Every structure is written in structure tokens, then in C-alpha cells.
């Protein structure tokens, strides 16, 4: 019998919109000859399976099961396609750990840690990985723009500390603009990260674990048509993404080896995407952040890298699911 796979999409944050875009790509490329796939929509209103003909079935959250035509259906593994909370911040992973279901993403501890940008770079820096100098600000303990600029030099990036897709992010070149950028970021989160700008080329690389071990995908160089790689650049065509990147092998190897080191350091699972700035003067890649549920839409980078490696998305998603299923068998 084919394993039953729950493909979860949706979410509770503004990134649900991106989750649904990813879902279109994933659904088209899951190998239904190998797996019986059930798409589960996780929303603030409830967890549902679309059974067709406008009929939605509610998921039994006691054991993450469905009842279809009077018969109980359970799952063998979960393919997580939710960006933002609760699929990328460890909450859903903790729930699946309690129910004993394996899943395709990082575990709850790693997901929670890497969802917090400041804690991620702090751990990376402690392990000797180059990161930007930064300041972590909490809404309950306000810090003035002047206080921030006593610790950091302009230009800086201001971003919500928890979240993705560059929502609420700004680049600040002048001191007078910092207050507005902080206000914008605090609308998305009660924690904000302010980071010094690092000059250099922006690279991003997918890394995943299959039954064959840790594999790095081809590197992508990102060239934004805007001042930085923001939401519009990512999702509205205002960037140039060169896959594979046209880069000297010595630089590429530094990025690949650092990416593998990060994957191991944070005990990652499934596919992640790591963003770097390669600083020429330091001749080193600076890690920006880790995306533990990277986008899978037609505009997303990981699908580009998978194709550039000569893999099909069908084979790629099968490798992720099979890795999760192997954990269930242990």
C-alpha cells in the first residue's frame, strides 16, 4: 500500500498567501504513484481537508486523523508547506512530535530557534560563523533610534525578528528614517532586529538531507532591482536571480562548505535555504538568515536550484518524504 501523506498548507500569519502559492507547485509535483496525498488547510478558523464537491472535513486534532465515509484515516508522514506560524516556528512540529508523526522540516527546537533571527545569528557567531553586527529590540523595552546608532553604523537593515518573506523590512541609509523603519517592523512583530549593512554579493543556497546524506543545491546570486531584496523584489519580479551563480569556484566552495556547516550546527532536517553576503574585503560569506520552510512557488529560488541540479521537483519532493518516512521506521 502507498503511504498516506498529509500535505499541510495555509497558516496563521500574513505569509499564508505565500504558502498557498507554494502549494500550487508542490501539488503539481508530488508523486501520486508513490504516495496517497491529502492536502490539509490549516487556518485560524480550523484545520480542514477539502474532500471535493465543496465538502470540507475537519481534522481530528487528538491524533491528526480524518474520518472519510465513516472510516478513520491516519497518516504515515507530513509534508510541511506552511511559511510563518505555525509551520515554520516549531509549533506544528511540536504537535507532530506529540502525535508521533514524522515530518519533512526541521524539528521543533531548530524551527523555533531559526525563526528568531537574532538568536540564529547569535548561535552562528558563537560557533565562529561570520554574521553582521546587530541590535535586538523589544517592544516592551523601547530603544530610541539614537541609542541604536551609538552601537551600529549606517546603513542598516531593520526587520521583524520573527517572520519571513521580507514583510515589514526596510533599509535605512539616513538617521532620520530609522524611527519610521522601526515603527513599520513593530507592526509585524514585538521584536525587531537592526543589522549593519554588509557590502558584497548576495548568494542564497538550498541545503537538504535525503537518505543519501546532506546535499547542497546550486548557488543562486540575487540582484535586486530595488535597494534591497524586499517583498516586491522576491514576489513581484523586481529582482534578477542567477542560478547557478556565475562565481569563482573558490568563492562557491566557501559558500557551500559554510552552508553545510550551518545545516549541521543547527541540526537541520529536510530542505532549508540559507542567505549569505559574500564580502570581498574579508573574503568570507556572512550568514544573514536561515529559512526552514523555503518558498516553493514558481517564483521561488529552491525550485530553480533543484532544476539547475538536474533533478525534477517530483524526485526532490519524493526524497524529502522518503527521508521523513525513514525516520518513522526507526
TrEMBL record:
UniProt-annotated location(s): Cytoplasm
Positions of Mg(2+) 1 binding: 275, 289
InterPro entries for this protein: ATP-grasp, ATP_grasp_subdomain_1, D-Ala_lig_Van_CS, D_ala_D_ala, Dala_Dala_lig_C, Dala_Dala_lig_N, PreATP-grasp_dom_sf
GO MF term set: ATP binding; D-alanine-D-alanine ligase activity; metal ion binding
EC number: 6.3.2.4
Active-site residues from the entry: 15, 165, 300
Alphabetized UniProt keyword annotations: ATP-binding, Cell shape, Cell wall biogenesis/degradation, Cytoplasm, Ligase, Magnesium, Manganese, Metal-binding, Nucleotide-binding, Peptidoglycan synthesis
Note on cofactor: Binds 2 magnesium or manganese ions per subunit.
Protein's UniProt keywords contain Repeat: no
Catalytic activity from the UniProt record: 2 D-alanine + ATP = D-alanyl-D-alanine + ADP + phosphate + H(+)
Main location: cytoplasm
Family in the record: Belongs to the D-alanine--D-alanine ligase family.
Entry protein name: D-alanine--D-alanine ligase
Gene for this chain: ddl
